[in-house]
Amino acid sequence: MSKLLKTSKIRGRRSLAAICAALASLPSLATVYTWTGGDAESPTLFSKTANWDANGIPSTSETNEEIKFPLSAAVTIVNDIGDIAVTKISFSGAYKATIQSPDGYKFTEVQTIANSASVNHEFQCKVICKSGITPNIARTSATRPAFPGGIVMDKLPITGSSSQDVWSGNIETTTEDLQEFANASMAGSMTWLLSGTTFRAKYATLDRIGMSAGATSVVERLLYYGCKRGVNGGWYSQVWDNGNGVVKTEELRVTGDATLMHSYAAADEIGGTIIAKRLVYGVTKIPGGNWQWPRFFLNCGGISGSNIVAGDANGEGFWVIGSGGLDFISEKTTGHYSVRLMKTLSGDKPGAMLQSYEDWALAENPNGKDVAALEIYGDNNRVTAVAIDTAHYAVGDPELDVATSHTVTLNGMVTGGGAMRLYGPGEVVFANEHKVSGGVTANDSVTVVCNAGCRPGNGAVTMNGTSTLKVAESGTVALGGTLTLATGATLAFNFTEKDAAPVLNGTAVTVPSGSVNVKVSSTGELRPKGGNYALTSGMDFSGKAVNLVDPPEWTRGAKVVDGDIVVSVKSRGFMLIVK
Fold it and tell me: pLDDT tens digits, residue range 243-253?
């Protein structure tokens, strides 16, 4: 064979190999698969060839163009072959399909779920939408599917409409920030109602979410802003529009036994329970450079025009707060309340409940004392009672559903015409000169702790049950109104200096029983100098016996002298050493 011929054959084989390799590298032609359910023995299994048309069983190794389910009867279909990537899933026929996968197989790369009939199909297996696109999913009340197995998307398939998107199931997002499409994709008067749903996202600023009974939202950082009453009775938050700075209204609704759960939050509360490690007052800038902030942060009643009106029948909103506390993310608060709680008071029911699952603190005033950290609404006609509970009992989460005592520290100033009610076995520390004028009532066995120079408020202080009012350091705590002590209540005084007493000053006192429970202590190894120390002033305890509870060894006793409670401290002995 000549050299030229050999070379030609070699070149020919190389060319053929190159062509084959090139063809192999091309994307395969996607196929449309149509379900028939024709297998006589196993008419529900993906793995049976007879259940499909001539194109056969969908591929588990490539992205399929479409899987069609034309239905002539209600059927449960089982994916027993593996994860299936498919661009489109479509249904036809007026019968329900329930798609399962006991082995946990998923549909992936989904872009469209179409339905031509008035029937709600159900995906009990997980559906993962294609990343970076807005999936097109049947949305009308007659055609929308349910996702009890969960659906994952990073762009919400919601567009301007007057209808509601009601999806049940677990909705998850893979994006870190929903802001860019939340503002753009939820328009008109439409609400996205999550029914019996868990909604998961890393960050979210959503225009409208309707949370029905049993629904849960799990978000690491959830931003809702402002609050006002809508014409349809809903609650709306206000967000500066990203493009032109015009304020538009968005709705957040939490109803029934719905729970909104997240690690960080700036939200309007309208009922139900919110569990958060950290609650944040959300003054911030959004993309485009505009400021946005809430006029009212925690709201448990309604707003109609400029008037405060009653909330829903249940009224109270429950916030369960963790170690992150109640905080602020900006000092830009001039002209805006940091946190405002309000509801028309009905009997003894508080308008809002701040509960605990860890020790937490109210942050310092964000802008000096010109803006209160917490305002409790109240005027002559409408008074709000806000409750702080240092132990939470009924969340339903085993980790939180424990009657454990916690300490709540109110660093920022509390103001307003409303009232505060305190519950639990833990402590509430008033670490500021608070100006709430509706009074403070302590219940159960809660301990009210006041540092020197601080006070619970401008109103009356009522100590019920076995509660304790404690002056935590040497110096004076001045009450703003009458002190009322129940029979089981205790006044506690802690010495932090050797020659200066902790003193409780007031204008009047009411003690129904014939005695007053008093407890004295000192910090660390400190021992006060010997002598008599007046622990109260301005309040007349005349005629009352003093019951000294668990007295330290350095006390001689306590009694009422000229209307004040006085404790007697032993003098230290001395030894004369003669050499």
Answer: 333 333 344 45
